[in-house]
C-alpha cells in the first residue's frame, strides 16, 4: 500500500491530489488548490513551497508525481511555470520523497485513453476512477490524474518485471 501525491504546478494555482494505492485498488484521500493571490513571483513561490510542504506533512505520501514542463507559446509563462514546478520539487526532495515526472499527454492518455483529451474529460474520468460524488476542480483533477498515472505506470513496471523474472526462469504465467 502506498500514498501518492500528484501536483499540477502553476504560479497562480497549483493543484494537488492525494490517493492511496493498494494493489490495483485506488482510493481518494484529498485534493485541492494552492492559490497564490499575491502579485510578486517570489512571494507566490514561497506560498507554493509552504503549501506543498504542508500537504506532505498532512498526508505523508510515499511518492511525489508532477507534470513535466511543456513548451508554452509565452516564454515568460513557461519560465514562471518552471519556477513553480521547481519549488514544489524542492519541497518533495526536502521531505525525502522520490520524484516522478509525467508529460501532460501521457497523463491524459492514461486516464482517458486520449492523449489530447479536454479538461472536462479528465475531470469526468478522475471522478469515475476514484468513485467521487462530483467532478473535482480542474487543477485538482489534473493533479489526481497525475497521481493515477503514477499508479498505473508503476503497476505496469512491477508486472513487466515480474513477467521478465518468470520468463528468465523458463516460463511465463
Could you walk me through the main structural features you see in this protein, from its secondary elements to its overall organization?
One of its GO terms (biological process) is DNA recombination. InterPro entries: RNaseH-like_sf, RNaseH_sf, X-over_junc_endoDNase_Mg_BS, X-over_junc_endoDNase_RuvC. Its cofactor is Mg(2+). The chain has helices at residues 41-59, 75-94, 104-112, 119-130, 138-168, and strands at 2-8, 13-22, 25-35, 63-67, 99-102. It is built from 5 helices and 5 strands; from the N terminus they run βββαβαβααα. The protein has 173 residues and is an alpha/beta fold. It is 53% helix and 21% strand. It is globular, with a radius of gyration of 17 Å. The protein has one domain: 2-Layer Sandwich (Nucleotidyltransferase, domain 5), CATH 3.30.420.10. Helix 1 packs parallel to helix 2 and helix 3 (104-112) packs across helix 5 (138-168). Strands 3-2-1-4-5 form a 5-stranded mixed sheet. Mean pLDDT is 89; it is low at 162-173.
Write the layout of secondary structure elements.
Elements: E1 2-8, E2 13-22, E3 25-35, H1 41-59, E4 63-67, H2 75-94, E5 99-102, H3 104-112, H4 119-130, H5 138-168
Parallel strand pairs: 1-4, 4-5
Antiparallel strand pairs: 1-2, 2-3
Helix pairs in contact: 1-2, 3-5, 4-5
Characteristic terms for this protein:
Nucleotidyltransferase, domain 5, disordered C terminus, five-stranded mixed beta sheet, single chain, globular, 173 residues, endonuclease, alpha/beta
Label the CATH architecture.
2-Layer Sandwich
Let me know the CATH homologous superfamily. Ribonuclease H-like superfamily/Ribonuclease H
The general outline is globular
CATH topology: Nucleotidyltransferase, domain 5
Order of helices and strands: EEEHEHEHHH
Span between termini? 24 Å
Number of domains: 1
The percentage of residues in β strands lies in 15-25%
Round the mean pLDDT to the nearest integer and report it: 89
User: In DSSP terms, counting alpha (H) and pi (I) runs of 4 or more, how many helices?
Assistant: 5
**Strands in their spatial order, largest beta sheet:** 3-2-1-4-5
Please provide the count of β strands: 5
User: Structural class of the secondary elements?
Assistant: alpha/beta
